[in-house]
Amino acid sequence: MKFDLSEDQALLQSSTRDFFAKAFPLEKTRRTMEHDPKGFEPSQWRQIAEMGYPALLVPEAQGGQGLGPIELAIVCEEAGRTCLPGPLFDVQLAAATLAAAGKQDSLLAEIAAGRKIVTIAWRNSPYAGEAKQTTHFAHGRVKGHKYFVPFACAADALLVTTAEGLALVEGPFEVTKLDTIDLAQRFGEVALDHPATLIGPTSLLETTDLLAAVGAGATLLGVMAKAMEITLGYLQTRETFKRAIGSFQAIQHRAADMLLRTESSRSAVYRAAWCLAAKDPETALACATAKAYAGDAARLVTAEAIQMHGGIGFTWELDIHFFFKRAKTYEMHYGSTEAQLERVLAAVGY
């Protein structure tokens, strides 16, 4: 398949790359990770909202941008290139779900303006007792525990999966922070005993799950692409035996494998985005394949990038370790590689 971005999509790509590079340089993100308990700065979030990114997937009739999976992939790829801090992707998924549920225009307007942060609480706690394994909605309240909730400490509201359906729960929340290797991606365990509104069945998340696979795969693609750029620059300047280390054939072979995995991920991710936008019958297979392949590829590419930097590769002072940490985080979330491979098998009839 030959795939080219349209003129508008190419403009979105270039403008997003410029904006993220200027507004979120890694030296600034580094300071945010070290000092901000939320993992992002409110002023940065307002900048993102002014650009319209939180409402990217919301129809224009509901105050959004009215864009689709391909545009989501473009924005997520550029976010991956900068290891963007904050809940943008999680808010985009929540906004798309609220738009699909309907009757949430006022909340969507708040999200689009950057005044409210809403994320999705998908997972039950795997380490809790049996009573905490299922979250329930009854008599206008949600009770239970959710685990690995993205940016739970910053969320004004959560979309919570329950045995009875998908519930909208307003904060504040009781959150136990969970340790993560990527300090610009925050997760927490949330104890719920809150008033809530049931907004629809959990089947609303079926499309969201596909969008999550595409967006996460695109983020991993951006991570790989930027890690390769940084590494190739290093290989051309670092010398040993009076030669740039990139001139050695063994290094060239490894770099070529990194490029192969990166460009193969690009093909898989944008094919999945196209399938989802076109409602292709192979959408489920394409999305699961893209996320599974990109997750595995990003881990290998970023690990190689660190190895090629030698002993300084994983020092805090060097930027390359941020990309490895983002790759590992996204490999495990939004459908882990193992979970996506199971979906691939299911899609092909096994």
Q: Number of helical runs? A: 11
CATH class of the largest domain: Mainly Alpha
Percentage beta strand:
15-25%
CATH superfamily of the largest domain: Butyryl-CoA Dehydrogenase, subunit A, domain 3
User: What is the overall shape?
Assistant: globular
What is the number of E strands?
Answer: 10
The radius of gyration is: 20 Å
Secondary-structure-derived class:
alpha+beta
State the low-pLDDT regions, or none.
none
**CATH architecture identity of the largest domain:** Up-down Bundle
Mean pLDDT: 92
Describe this structure in words.
The structure is a single chain. The protein is α+β, with helices and mostly antiparallel strands. The protein has helices at residues 7-23, 26-35, 42-50, 69-81, 88-101, 105-112, 205-237, 249-278, 283-308, 320-332, 337-347, and strands at 118-121, 123-124, 136-138, 141-150, 157-162, 165-170, 174-178, 187-200, 239-240, 243-244. The strands form two sheets. Strands 1, 2, 3, 4, 5, 6, 7 and 8 form an eight-stranded mixed beta sheet that branches. Strand 7 and strand 8 (187-200) form a beta hairpin. The model has no long low-confidence stretch (mean pLDDT 92).
